[in-house]
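Ticket opened by: R.M.
Priority: normal
Category: complex prediction / small molecule

The reporter submitted a protein together with magnesium ion and asked that the result be attached to this ticket for the collaborator who will pick it up next week. Submitted input follows.
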Amino acid sequence: MRKQEVSALIIGRFQPFHNGHLEVIRNIANRCDRLIVGIGSAQLSHTFDNPFTAGERHLMISRALHDDGMEDFFLVPMVDINRYAIWVAHVQSLVPPFQDVYTNNPLTRRLFEEAGYNVCSAPLFNREIYSGTEIRRRIVNKKEWEHLVPKGVSETIYEVHGDQRLQDITKNHSYEVTI
Ligand code: ATP
Ligand code: MG
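Result attached by the on-call engineer:
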């Protein structure tokens, strides 16, 4: 029989996956046997808030984690169902069994705690710059952003012309950099 393994779940939109996400995942990976990363709002793409498809996010995260030496992880796209009461059941139906959930979102914490999971909070790293919104603003405004994400992420974004996509779809809006 296999020994009891501890699996931990973290869910994010990862638009895009950045160095703050990588740092928090490194910490979680040290505390579990298997990491499950839920790619949230998987149905969304081509907007300022959610520019990248689930497939593109899958590729950028798997490259970043492999480059960082991680192997035992599951990346699972999750579409929104917009019904909080059955959100946990939806997640359970998509991923391997897990025991621990890492989140900073109070509603997510409540839903998983009500379902009996062990919910932990994860510290934020350098949040002013390691933020999806900040990175998207920089891409739109043609400011430096590549140093805020793992190499596999910037490579993926350039491969799919994601920088041009973001600039095009926001042409008539103002997303001024605020730092
Ligand atoms: P956006 O600005 O688009 O909301 P984000 O940077 O908040 O992007 P998300 O995909 O919304 O990224 O976050 C996924 C998870 O990663 C959340 O639990 C969030 O708390 C965590 N997270 C986000 N930024 C950091 C960071 N700098 N350090 C550690 N964890 C982070
Ligand atoms: Mg966020």
